[in-house]
Structure of Flavorubredoxin:
Amino acid sequence: MSIKKISEGVWSLRSNDWDRRVFDELISLPYGTTYNAYLVKGSDKCALIDTTDPTKTYELINDLKRLNVRVDYVISNHAEQDHSGSIGDVLNLYPDAMVVTNSKCKDFLIDLLHIDSDKFLVVKEGDKLELGLKTLQFKITPWVHWPETMITFLEEEKILFTCDFFGSHLATSELYVTDESLVYMAAKRYYSEIMMPFRNNVRKNLEIVKSLSPKIIAPSHGPVYQDPKFIVNATEDWISDKVKNLVLIPYVSMHGSTKILVERLVQSLTDLNIEVIQFSLTKTDIGEIAIHMVDAATIVLATPTVLLGPHPAALYATYLVSALKPKTKYFGLIGSYGWGSKVVDIVSNMLSPLKPHIISPVLIKGMPKDEDLKKIDDLAIQISGLHKNL
Ligand SMILES: Cc1cc2nc3c(=O)[nH]c(=O)nc-3n(C[C@H](O)[C@H](O)[C@H](O)COP(=O)(O)O)c2cc1C
């Protein structure tokens, strides 16, 4: 764990998880991650904002002992265990401390961690907690990431503690953002995997953040933003309705027929000056695809028929697209089959909650012939026409 001073009486207590490569048994972490807690010491009281993952509890406890403080309040912005999982141990260290959170988060903490209900101080939108010369204000910001999420604003220093909001999975010894392009990609990946399904809520909560004009944004994953404009502007771009002249082609092919269609489509789209990214679904980390789903205008799924439906790798990708709810405008489907297929129905049904514009699918029998490749060229021309209206 590293202790870094942000300003007088304000510290970042960060556990770096350099070696972690999977989160939630789902998301890959190419750069590891961090769990950040923050300590705010007023002239009278001391508050710990969020805690750390249970695997790192010992580091947080050691740091609190090193700082030789008495914690009066544990602020819980979010009940997920990577931030709340050490609250029980912190309460054991400071038996008089109270957990400060909103009523929804309190319920979660009782359900998830069995924290005693009389250990809570429940706050509402706009409530303030005086620490003596330091004032914490609480803003209720649901769905960045769960329904109970809130953010905490240190008024005097204008530091905003946002927990998962604006997070990035990136282990780093640096307190602040140093390599902007690396943090941009890590934060975009984080947004795509965690926040994108709640784009409208992110938009509302971003307005709350802007209204506070923070000087520093301190999330609970990744580095602290010394220049909040960097992450606020990036998030504004990701949540906007703007899409890029970009086609993603996630594909799988067992014997090469679908791959021939994919390669022809990549060629035709490229000739039409459309940016294309091709992903092998059996080789690519799905997070790579999610990042580009943030702003791609079109996704064309390419799959052979397996037991009447899409190949399981394509089925999984389709499920993730429907769950992540990207702002993608157009969806296409191409692939090869042998004797009979329900791929179009299955994929269309799975995507139906997105109310997608599905471009006429191109399913061909067996290995592509010249006339099949012509259909792929026509598909590229259709996509190009649609992209002219972006
Ligand atoms: C395990 C397996 C199951 C298949 N099930 C079907 C099926 O239900 N319906 C069908 O039309 N073709 C089925 N096929 C045939 C493939 O869809 C066909 O060979 C196709 O051309 C494969 O495309 P690819 O070369 O891109 O892998 C199956 C093939 C395999 C290997």
Summary: The CA atoms of residues 322 and 351 lie 5 Å apart. The two ends are 47 Å apart (CA to CA). The chain has a mean pLDDT of 97. Residues 253-258, 304-308, 336-341, 366 surround flavin mononucleotide (CB under 6 Å).
